[in-house]
Structure formats: C-alpha cells, structure tokens
Amino acid sequence: MSKVELKSDLDYYDIVRQKLEVGPLHAPKHEKIIELLKVFWPEEELIKILSHFPQAGEHITLNELAEKTGMEKIAIKKILKKATKKKTVSLTKYGYGLEPLAPGIFEAYFVARTDTPENLQKASTIFRWLFKHVGELEAQGLRLFDKEFEMFRPLLPIETKEKLIKIDETVTSESQVLPYELVEDLINKNDYWAYVPCQCRMIGEMNGEPCDCAPSEMGCFMTGRGARGAVSFGWAKPLATKEEAIEYLKKTEKAGLVHLTSNSKGGEHLWFICNCCPCHCGALMPAKNLGYKSAIPSNFKPKIDPETCVECETCVEKCPMDAISHPEEGKMLIDSAICIGCGLCASNCPQNAITLEKIHNVVPPDKKLIGKKMFMQMLSELLMS
Question: Which one of 198, 248, 278, 368 is least enclosed by Cβ atoms within 10 Å?
C-alpha cells in the first residue's frame, strides 16, 4: 500500500486550503472555499498528492513527490497533468507549485477556460459569491486578503498629461507627472499590445449578473512578451497598431472603467492593466464598499472649474467611487476622502471643466511581491504550465 493511501483519515482539502495562504492572501476556512477546491481538484488521488506540496509560491520536484507519496513518478505526472492543463497547478523548471486563489488561480483559470463548462460554471458561481460577500466574511473573521494590502493603484487615462493636468513650470520637481503614473507608459514602452476578457465581469455574466458599465470582452490590457504568449495560445486578442491600442484604452475610459495596475514602478505595471468596474472587480469593489486598500488612490485629485462646468453630471455618472455629487444648482462637490484619483471624471467631461492636480508624491515600490513573487510571475507560471 502506498504512502498516499495510508492517510485516508486526513482532511486533504483542508490541508491544501492552508497551503494556499501566502503573505496577505488567504483561503479562509469556509464551506465555499472547500467547494471551490473540489471543483478544481475533484480526484482523491490528486488532492492527496497536492497535500504534499509546499506552501503556495514554492516548488516541489517530481522526485520529491515520488519520495513523499510512495507513488511512481509516471503516475504522479499523469495525475498532475490534468491540474496543470486547467491552470490550477503551476509547472516550471523548478518543479510543481500551488498559487494563491485570488489573485492567482482565479485569473489563470478563467483566462485559459480549459476546464469543463460545468466546472467553469460552478467555479464562477463560487467566486462571484465570495467577491460579493467580502463584508460578510470579514464579519466572521474571514478574509480573502488583508484589508491593508495595497494591491493595485490607478493609472491616469490616455492623453491626461497633455490635456487634463495643469502644471505651472515653477512647481517643484516632485509635482511633475512621472511616466509610471500614466497609462500611456504601457503604450510608449512596448511594441505589442493585446487584451483578454475581464475575469471578474465574466463570472458575473455567467451568473446572470452582467456589468452595466461594460461587457467582459472589454477586459484587461496586456503588453510585450506576455501579450504575445497569450495571443499565441488563443487567450488574448491582438491590437495591431499603437493607434489601435490607444483607441482601445479610450473606449474603456468612456465606458467608465478604471485602469488598475500593480502598485509598483519597476516594470510590472508595464505588462498589464485591469480595466475595472466597481460592481464586479475583486479589488475595486471592496475598496469602494468596505474601505479596503486593494485599490489605493493615485497622487492626483480632480478639480472642477465652476466657470466652465455646465453641471451635466457626466462626472457624477462616471465616478466609480461615487465621490462626486450635485446637491444643488451651482454646486458640484468632490469627496476627497473616497476619491481614488483615477481621472475618469476629467477624461469624460464634455466641457473639459475638470483638471487633475498632483497633491501627493507617494512613490510605489519597485516590485510588489506577494510572498516571494510578483502577481504577473504567479499568473505566468500557471498559464505557461
């Protein structure tokens, strides 16, 4: 009898659940989480093998798994092949690995969509429930991620620097607009662009709860080598020219989607942005509704020119945080406490009556690590398995 068969009395799903915890990301002990793991890894032999894996973000070799489980390497490889195909287990030159649920497996699983339609539907229902009930989980002492984790930050819209920001030449250098604060940085520093469906809006659509702002097809924006790889696998659609990439981003802005990227400045923000809505996004929704720091403010705040403003309320409609109000004629108010400085009000104002002012100079870290990895590294390892 093999070692993997001797421990049949153990709760393997709970063992694996605990291994999905890494840094600020959690897999709380809740029935919905266990349901989800059973969708990802329904086979008994598979979950037993995964119970021997190290903590998420680490790797284990085939030889090590054979030693720990007492199984033949060829049998282990065959069983794990299903999981790597579904993008729920990563495989790199260093070995096999687990990644956190979200962000992590969630994005890769729904980008690839290689599981059965039935399982995809089940997983989408569970994830949608989890995203909608973050507050309820928190009340029970359960969290998908730490409330203080500064996961993403906004990039300012296309043409912001030229059209929407007023900067006096006499201001200090700290007040200047820096490239990593603009979505145009992704355009100007790359020569290949593509987009993939938004996974958050996708699971909403799969459960009869589509977003009012935009369809899932108007999704995440990718650049460079990652974009080429995603296109080659059929996961992403290419944008043929720089002009086409710019028009795509403008279209997302007009729809009222926020450009969110990694809270870093050392390069990862040049690989991707999520174009996010406040009703479905797993980061923006808890930031708006519960005060999470999953989407932190930019260094900018909008300013409305009362002489130019015609009080059309376009800004009120487009603000993802409900930070702008029109309580009475002649008065447009911006609640700076909840505004995240995304610039959508300014880019959508038909009168160009809103400008953006740099009021802070918070410099993001070079890298935003989750455990030992950046988000895009986790995603790449899953998708390229």
Answer: 248
